[in-house]
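All the exercises in this workshop are built on plain-text protein records. An example says more than a description, so a record of this kind follows:
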Amino acid sequence: MVYILLCFATALIVGVLSTPALIKVAYLKRLVDEPGEERKLHFRRVPTIGGIIIFAGTLFSYLMWYPFAEIEEIGQLGRALKDFQYIGATMLIIFFIGVKDDIIGTAPVKKLIGHLIVAFILVIMGDIRITSMYGIFGIEALPEWGSIMLSVLTYTVIVNAINLIDGLDGLAGGVGTIASVAMGVWFYLAGGVEHAVLAFALAGSLIGFLVYNFSPAKIFMGDSGSLTIGLVLSVLSIKLIEYPVDRLPNELLNVSRPVFAMAALVYPLTDTFRIFLYRVIRGVSPFTADRNHLHHKLLDLGLDQRKTVLIIYITSIFLILLSTSIRLEPSLVLIIMVALALTISQVPGFLFMIRQRKKNQQKE
């Protein structure tokens, strides 16, 4: 517990104390996002390199307070050292991919190559992968090729989902905080202190960053921040799903690990799925930017940015708690969670359509 608290406090202090200086440097070097485009919601210049703080706070506190002394078994220590090595290495790679994109831009092909390199290091070299579905839809152990493909897909989806929801002050940072705290608490209860430290390192750095990123934002995280968050959360998700059952306390035995991992990331995953499906149905590229995300629909209803992100925060926490309280088959719980999340995400758009129809009828 001491390591977790120290890790969280260190990351938080790094974020709170370092961000003002970074904001000054960003203005001096003109590393800012200019207003003007239709999709942009800010009306003044805002620095875009806040991901440096998220990366630095997370990695620094993770390296400083990694609980080697808490790991007693030789086998677990060897696995922990391997995780420590490859998580640190991939965080460096993904950060530089993001920061380059924030400053001078990066071609999509080069970004894809970078993501594939990160996935290769994590899944093949680091052996951080999903080996079983643990009863979801009757699937248990996966063949090695299936395990590798699912793990690469998991990493890719989570990283891009976090990147796609970074369109509102405090949204990606707050959702990332909720997910990391949820997983961190789970790992703490399960006895996985080494993973809890990583989760709370990310949570601390994000809360420190949110002090300056909550609406009206003084700084944006940029790709360097969203990609770092996505990488850490993808690693934590895989580690949570693969956590040994024989090490779980009784209170966690009835909680499906795959369902809980998905619930922790329910908003970015369902919003990404919904928006990709919508774009495909319209016959446009899934990666085409538009204003059809859930947070855009909430804004269209007349909510400001603060109220919008708070609604999404509350919904995310509710669904996470719900995933731990339903005592049904994991497959049924997953179906209920996904259906509920997708239904909730459609409500703002439905309400907006009703409002528009009433306005049109009044004009007529």
Residues 2-363 form one domain.
